[in-house]
């Protein structure tokens, strides 16, 4: 038991690093290949991306305008249906009364 | 003398203001109605709709012509589950702004058979009819129509005869 403790103490004792330790670490870091994120260097690729984005925006805007127009049309037809039917009812009654009073 | 000048100036200004929507408060009725429909179309929406109405379709072409001169269409309908859920007193405030000389009631009909009442008011301006209000009451339904602008009553009534417009789903409140 005592010998195991001695062995552990010996294995875990504090040791100072060698004098060139820091230099060696720095040298390895400098030697390691640098990973760079891929960048689009061709200008035409950026132009195409910008054009595609602009086209998408324009198409979306047109589609939205069409949707709003169709919705507005439906609402106008509904409004005319409601208002017209009420007015027509009143007009029919007036005509009916006029007809009765004439006959 | 100066103080009297201000109301006169306001009156003159009011005379030159464009026709406007009748301001009604629907809060009380909306709280009691089981369903309500709100169609609010201002001049810009009417113009946009005009571009999408077909000239080839006979009815749509008529609607296009009709709404061409309008500045707004505002409709509210309230549906109730049972008769008597709204009273004549609830309708009275809607008539309040429709007083002479600006407004004139041209038609008022009532049917004992189905309990339906229709009142038609027009607003006269220098160019003729400048607006229209229809108040239609049924035992379980109330409809208020306000059309702003020069409306052709005959065309509107004629279009009201047709029910072959596509049925439109409108966002119902409540």
What would you say this structure looks like, in words?
The complex is a heterodimer of chains A (103) and B (174). With 103 residues, chain A is mainly alpha-helical. Chain A has 3 helices and no strands. Chain A has helices spanning 2-11, 21-31, 43-102. A 7-stranded antiparallel sheet of chain B has the order 3-4-5-6-2-1-7. Chain B has 6 helices and 7 strands; from the N terminus they run ααβααβαββββαβ. Chain B is globular and about 45 Å long. The termini of chain B are far apart. Chain B has 174 residues and is an alpha+beta fold.
Strand and helix map with partners:
The complex is a heterodimer of chains A (103) and B (174).
Chain A: H1 2-11, H2 21-31, H3 43-102
Chain B: H1 2-16, H2 27-32, E1 35-42, H3 43-52, H4 58-68, E2 70-79, H5 88-95, E3 103-110, E4 117-125, E5 128-138, E6 141-149, H6 153-161, E7 172-173
Helix pairs in contact in B: 3-4
């Amino acid at each position: 038991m005592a010998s195991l403790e001695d062995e552990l103490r010996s294995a875990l004792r504090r040791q100072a690093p060698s004098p060139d330790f820091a230099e060696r670490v720095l040298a390895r870091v400098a030697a390691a290949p640098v990973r760079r994120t891929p960048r689009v260097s061709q200008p035409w690729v950026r132009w195409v991306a910008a054009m595609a984005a602009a086209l998408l925006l324009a198409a979306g805007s047109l589609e939205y305008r069409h949707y709003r127009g169709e919705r507005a049309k439906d609402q106008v037809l509904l409004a005319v249906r409601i208002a017209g039917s009420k007015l027509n009812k009143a007009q029919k009654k007036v005509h009916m009364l006029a007809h009765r009073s004439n006959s | 003398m100066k103080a009297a000048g201000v109301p006169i100036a306001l009156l003159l200004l009011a005379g030159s203001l464009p026709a406007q929507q009748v301001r009604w408060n629907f809060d009380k009725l909306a709280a009691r109605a089981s369903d309500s429909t709100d169609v609010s179309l201002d001049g810009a929406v009417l113009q946009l709709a005009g571009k999408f109405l077909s000239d080839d379709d006979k009815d749509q072409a008529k609607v296009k012509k009709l709404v061409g001169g309008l500045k707004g269409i505002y409709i509210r309908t309230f549906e109730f589950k049972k008769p008597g859920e709204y009273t004549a007193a609830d309708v009275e405030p809607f008539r309040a702004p429709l007083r002479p000389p600006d407004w004139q009631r041209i038609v008022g009909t009532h049917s004992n058979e189905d309990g339906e009442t229709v009142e038609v008011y027009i607003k006269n301006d220098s160019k003729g009819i400048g607006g229209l209000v229809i108040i239609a009451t049924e035992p379980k339904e109330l409809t208020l129509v306000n059309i702003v602008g020069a409306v052709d009553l005959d065309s509107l009534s004629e279009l009201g005869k047709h029910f072959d417009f596509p049925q439109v789903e409108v966002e119902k409140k409540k």
